[in-house]
Design goal:
The complex is a heterodimer of chains A (about 180) and B (about 450). Chain A is α/β, with parallel strands linked by helices and about 180 residues long. Chain A has five helices and seven strands. Chain A has a single domain, classed as Collagenase (Catalytic Domain), CATH 3.40.390. In chain A, the strands form two sheets. In chain A, strands 1-4-7-6 form a four-stranded mixed β-sheet, sandwiched between helices. In chain A, strands 2-3-5 form a three-stranded mixed β-sheet. In chain A, a hairpin with a 4-residue loop joins β2 and β3. In chain A, α1 crosses α3. Chain B has about 450 residues and is of the alpha/beta class. Chain B has 18 helices and 18 strands. Chain B has a five-stranded parallel β-sheet, sandwiched between helices. In chain B, strands 9-12-15-8-16 form a five-stranded parallel β-sheet. A two-stranded antiparallel sheet of chain B has the order 1-2. The longest helix of chain B has about 30 residues. The radius of gyration of chain B is 32 Å and the shape is extended. The chains are: A alpha/beta (about 180), B alpha/beta (about 450). At the A-B interface, loops of A face α1 and α5 of B.
Chain lengths: ~180, ~450
């Protein structure tokens, strides 16, 4: 059975990752090992924006991976962007092997609120499953409770669940079966 | 997000590949159909190939700039929603783009939330535009001449005239006996005209006293006369941009004729008791069952008004002159009342139809409608029988006296049919009537080969 490889690139709170692995196993149905890699991510830094270009990170990571059915989820605690947007929580290759999520804007402290690790974990789980969903060809879902619904701010992440709605679940199963 | 349950078609036009790529990926995740163009020429090529719902357009590009491209896009497809993407430095240009019809603009880089809201709003705009088009089509469908029933040459000619005159803004006079459907024709002209999205306002000139008609047509100010407790708009104002239908125009008084002529010439009037001049844009359709030429000769209808309104005339034939339409009309009214009365009467017996065809219908289609309505009330399902009709012919044609016109007609038709060897088409040509009429006469007179 293929796996979802969790790749911590720059994560200070690595204690979150085992719980994330469990959720991936439960929601995606594949093993989710945490693997350590050496990845010089600094090339994606934009000094003007003081953020990291997530598309460039995905391109760089792609070169390190071996081809196959496996999926790869990079986790980073730095602020990500794509050129046209001010920030992104994560990015995925639609129907591809790679996704990346950032915890940077998932912390309540970023919004001037008290620290809440449990909330950060929940948000990370939802965003990780969401981006992985895209790697299985899933598009955004109109069901606001489905993990595949689009979230443009953390409040929207908090509103949705970590689970797929029946339609997205069926599409995920079909994609996994057909490869 | 989708319009009418289909994904949006989004075209991204930007000379920066990273912008095209990131927006492309972003919208793909939303399930939209996404295209990308590196410059204006590339975009125009893609616009020619297929329709795009939304174009996200960078304003600053080498070669043709975004403003020029926006104009071209509008020429190709005015329904395409253009969203301008701009850097801080070019906000003024973006404002110019808005003035020239862009839907909105967004300053690069934008927040995911802004982008999401922008596209969501644009999708709503597209839905409204689509809905508007659909509603207009629906109005057009509803406005078709479905209610004008008739397959006779006379009615075909009337329908042709309606189609012809509808597209113009000419004044039309519809002439014909009472009950022939003059108002229906007026409504058909209106619904085929460019004024169809504005009202057609009917006024029965014959039903109102002179002073009331003046107030009805031109409106009145508060206190203009006893009982005028508030200001009231007249039919001329109500019909602004639409059609004013003056029924029984031949019945209006000399004073009203003068008033009417003045308003038709100037397209301006004042409300009764008022001083403010009101300008209107109306199309006038008149109807009358009177012989206007005779009325002009007799001095009861002003000659100048006659010439002012008599631009295009449609004559509605009386029902007795288009008897071949009676079966169609009768069945149409049966269907209509069966639905409205929820009564399962679906047909008319041949004997009852024979009576309908033979009746002279002095009250024309209106009388036929009433006859069918009565029959639908008193009749028992599933068919209308002769006894259900409000009249009885004194005698069957078979029993017609030998000197009667009917007897002569029966004898002549029988002779022609024999001569034509019962070839109905040939016999109809020889008799100079249409085949349906001949069939009806064969049936009526009980002729057999």
């Amino acid at each position: 059975m293929p796996s979802v490889h969790i790749l911590p690139i720059h994560v200070s709170a690595s204690t979150l990752l085992p719980a994330l692995s469990d959720v991936i196993v439960k929601q995606i149905g594949w093993e989710a090992p945490i693997e350590t890699i050496e990845f010089p991510f600094s090339y994606a830094f934009d000094p003007n924006r003081k953020q990291y270009n997530s598309s460039q990170l995905l391109l760089g990571l792609k070169n390190l991976l071996s081809p196959g059915a496996d999926k790869y989820l990079a986790v980073i605690d730095l602020d990500l962007f794509i050129p046209i947007l001010t920030f992104v929580f994560g990015e995925a290759q639609l129907d591809g092997p790679l996704a990346i999520v950032s915890t940077f804007r998932l912390h309540p402290e970023f919004y001037g609120l008290p620290k809440n690790d449990s909330l950060v974990l929940q948000r990370l789980e939802k965003e990780s499953i969401h981006e992985l969903g895209h790697t299985f060809s899933l598009r955004h879902c109109p069901d606001y409770q489905c993990v595949m619904t689009a979230s443009t701010d953390v409040e929207e992440i908090d509103l949705k669940g970590v689970e797929f709605c029946p339609d997205c679940r069926a599409a995920l199963t079909k994609c996994k079966r057909e490869g | 997000m989708s319009t009418s349950n289909r994904p949006l078609r989004l075209l991204i036009v930007d000379d920066e590949e990273s912008v095209r790529q990131s927006l492309h990926n972003w919208f793909l995740e939303d399930g939209h159909q996404v295209g990308a163009a590196k410059d204006a020429y590339d975009a125009l090529e893609q616009m020619e190939k297929q329709a795009w719902d939304i174009v996200l357009l960078d304003i600053k590009m080498p070669g043709m700039d975004g403003l020029e491209l926006q104009k071209r896009i509008n020429e190709i497809n005015k329904n395409t929603v253009v969203i301008i993407m701009t850097a801080y430095a070019s906000v003024e240009t973006a404002v110019q783009a808005l003035k020239e019809g862009a839907y909105d603009y967004v300053v690069k880089p934008f927040s995911p939330d802004d982008l999401s809201r922008l596209v969501r709003n644009a999708a709503k705009q597209i839905e409204l535009t689509t809905e508007n088009v659909q509603l207009r089509q629906k109005i057009q469908q509803m406005a078709r001449m479905e209610e004008i029933i008739g397959d006779s040459p006379q009615m075909k000619r009337v329908m042709e005239l309606v189609e012809t005159v509808a597209k113009s803004d000419s004044t039309v006079v519809i002439r014909g006996e009472s009950g022939t459907g003059k108002e229906l024709i007026a409504r058909a002209i209106h619904s085929h005209s460019n004024r169809r999205y504005f009202p057609i306002v009917p006024v029965n000139c014959g039903a109102l006293a002179e002073t009331l008609l003046e107030s009805e047509l031109f409106g009145h100010e508060k206190g203009a006369f006893t009982g005028a407790q508030s200001r009231r708009k007249g039919k001329f104002e109500m019909a602004d941009h639409g059609t004013l239908f003056l029924d029984e125009i031949g019945n209006i008084s000399e004073k009203m004729q003068i008033e009417l002529l003045r308003v038709l010439e100037a397209k301006q009037f004042t409300r009764v008791g008022g001083s403010q001049t009101i300008t209107v844009n109306i199309r006038l359709i008149c109807a009358t069952n009177k012989n206007l030429e005779k009325a002009v000769e007799e001095g009861t209808f002003r000659e100048d008004l006659y010439y002012r309104i008599n631009v295009f005339t449609i004559f509605m034939p009386p029902l007795r002159e288009r008897r071949s339409d009676i079966p169609l009309l009768a069945q149409h009214f049966v269907n209509r009342y069966a639905a409205s009365m929820n009564k399962p009467i679906t047909d008319i017996t041949p004997e009852a139809m024979d009576l309908l065809i033979r009746h002279d219908w002095p009250g024309n289609v209106r009388e036929l409608v009433n006859a069918i309505e009565r029959a639908m009330v008193v009749g028992k399902p599933p068919v209308i029988k002769p006894d259900d009709l409000p009249f009885q012919l004194a005698q069957k044609v078979d029993g017609a006296k030998s000197d009667s016109l009917a007897a002569a007609e029966k004898k002549h038709i029988s002779y022609v049919l024999t001569k034509a060897n019962w070839n109905i088409t040939r016999a109809a040509e020889m008799l100079e009537i249409d085949r349906v009429t001949l069939y009806n006469k064969i049936k009526r007179y009980g002729l057999r080969k």
